[in-house]
Amino acid sequence: MKTLTTVFNNLFRKDKKFPLDLDSVAEADLRAAKGEDFEDEDDEVEIIEMAVKRPSASAVAAGEKGGRDSPEADDSSSPMKSPSRTESAKATPSKGPAKKVTVVQVTVDKIGLKDYSVYVDPIIAVSIVSGGKIVEGTQETNVSTRREQQHILFGDVIRLKQPFEAILPGAAIFFEFKHFKAAKEKLSTKCWAFLEREDLHEGDHVLELYKKPTDFKRKKLSLLTVKQLYLSIHIKFEQA
User: Fold this and answer.
1) What separation in angstroms does the CA of 72 have from each of 67, 69, 75, 175, 209?
2) Residues 231/209, Cβ–Cβ less than 8 Å
3) pTM for the whole structure
4) Is the confidence at residue 13, as pLDDT, over 90?
5) Chain segment 132-153, per-residue pLDDT in tens
6) C-alpha closest to that of 111 among 188, 208, 238, 16
7) Is omega for the bond preceding 93 within 30 degrees of 0, making it cis?
8) Are the C-beta atoms of residues 200 and 173 closer than 8 Å to each other?
9) Cα 145–chain centre separation
10) Separation in Å, CA 97 to CA 89, 91, 162
11) 204 pLDDT more than 80
12) Cβ distance 162 to 135 under 8 Å?
């Protein structure tokens, strides 16, 4: 009340003229008349300044790190997770053990000929024929130098390049008896024999001999002789 009395006394002094010039009134007097507390003003200003105070650099850095590590951060910038070895093994089907094949081993024992002694550098050429065409390159025995009772002896082993499983039904193994003719200076075919795929099994085989030329289609067959003279071979299977 003492403060208000002082303010009004100052306002209504005799030397004051109306209208009043409020700008000339002390700001402290106006605030006191309005009932404002001078002691709380500094506290309010200090509180406002603290509220709007900028965060420190460490707080900003911590906030950015938290944003990157947050589960809600954008996943598009993060690298894709590589699958583990266990997951890769499940995704890739495992290959089973390699299938075994049957190797055909042919031993050319001997060939029976009535004029067995006249042939120079005789050999046996072995090939696989299917559909009238040679499907495996020809392999030859060594030149024979042994003779015995109307037979030329070889005893050589030929391993077919095609496994038993790859030889098609209807195919056949062909054997051509060849010798060197000095007058023509070349190898000449004397006779031939064959073993069909359906008769291919382990053990001894005695094959009939046919006159030349060799007929890979086996349509024109003419026996070389009616005597008991044949091509003797032995078949053995090996797993590889």
Assistant:
1) 8, 8, 8, 80, 88
2) yes
3) 0.61
4) no
5) 999 998 999 999 999 999 999 9
6) 208
7) no
8) yes
9) 53
10) 17, 19, 21
11) yes
12) yes
